[in-house]
Amino acid sequence: MSINFSESRVGKMEETVGESKRGIPLMKAVEDVAQWLKSEGEISGEDGRGRLDEQYRKYKMIEAGMAQQRLRLMEKIPEFQNSLRLIDTLIEKKEKGESFETSPMISEEVWTKATVKEPKTVSIWIGANIMVEYELDKAKQLIIKNHKKLNEQLAELNHELAFVKDQITTTEVNIAHVHNHVVKQRRLASMRMAAAN
Amino acid sequence: MASGDSDEQPNVTAADQQLINKFARLHQNFAQIREEMASLMTDLANINEAVDEIMLLGDDDGQAIPYKIGQTFVHFDSDSINERLEKDKEQVETDVDEMKDKSKNLEEQMEKLKTNLYEKFGDHINLETDKE
């Protein structure tokens, strides 16, 4: 049995991101700046930009936090791969009835030699300073199950990240629009001043 | 993103925004895939180097070659280690192919969006696709 590791590495490309399951608010595209400013409560262009800037910072913070989380999950993938490969090796040796030599790590940068006569069981670190000894097949099943869970977590996270990315892009475009609006208003005002003088 | 101070800027509708968002997302994924590809290429180079080195070993040295799995080395004779490396190589190559397909697909989608968006916004929009 083999598992596809590459799917989790880079998320699936979704057509539309839909909505956030974590309740991250949606940023609406501002199509008409003047109307948007009105709907926000008759605020000035500068205030509007300030509001968007603040939202932008919030989205960026959420994104950074989730990207960090994603990185931590991604780091676990090679660990699962290695565990699986090691268990597969043990199973292979067991089936062939072979003993084999190994150099396990006993401390950072220190390895020792050992001979495994008859691989039967393997201990799995299940967290909280606890290890449980499993038969090889059972151990493999557990690793695969946990890997599946990890993949699910990653998929969920990738979805949320894609959602946040969309909100960030929308906010960037909105900020540009409001900025342009402010510049235009100023230019109009100074032109009016010049005409009055 | 959209910028430019010119007065005659076409309106960005919510539908346009969706396209821009999608482009930005594709672009981000594209960058991730490229990183992933680079690391796979390193793996491939390492495997090839290992195969070459093993070929140079004499019979005595080829009896027990430590092969690193996670934090442990398991010792193999040169035949079974070659078999393993061959398998590793196949796996990496499949992964690389898969990544290539994905990145090609992303590129095509990005090109399509680019054509659409440039058509409407012309100089008012700048969509980056740094190829290499």
From TrEMBL, chain A:
Belongs to the prefoldin subunit alpha family. The keyword Coiled coil applies. Residues 140-174 form a coiled coil. GO terms for cellular component: cytoplasm; prefoldin complex. Transmembrane segments: none annotated. GO terms for molecular function: tubulin binding. Pfam families: Prefoldin. It comes from the Eukaryota. Keywords: Chaperone, Coiled coil. It comes from Mesorhabditis belari. Binds specifically to cytosolic chaperonin (c-CPN) and transfers target proteins to it. Binds to nascent polypeptide chain and promotes folding in an environment in which there are many competing pathways for nonnative proteins. GO terms for biological process: microtubule-based process; protein folding; tubulin complex assembly. The keyword Amino-acid biosynthesis does not apply. This is Prefoldin subunit 3. Heterohexamer of two PFD-alpha type and four PFD-beta type subunits. InterPro entries: PFD3 (IPR016655), Prefoldin (IPR009053), Prefoldin_subunit_alpha (IPR004127).
Automatic annotation (TrEMBL), chain B:
Keywords: Chaperone, Coiled coil. It comes from the Eukaryota. Residues 82-116 form a coiled coil. The keyword Metal-binding does not apply. InterPro entries: PFD_beta-like (IPR002777), PFDN4 (IPR016661), Prefoldin (IPR009053). GO terms for cellular component: cytoplasm; prefoldin complex. GO terms for biological process: protein folding. One of its GO terms (molecular function) is unfolded protein binding. Binds specifically to cytosolic chaperonin (c-CPN) and transfers target proteins to it. Binds to nascent polypeptide chain and promotes folding in an environment in which there are many competing pathways for nonnative proteins. Belongs to the prefoldin subunit beta family. Heterohexamer of two PFD-alpha type and four PFD-beta type subunits. This is Prefoldin subunit 4.
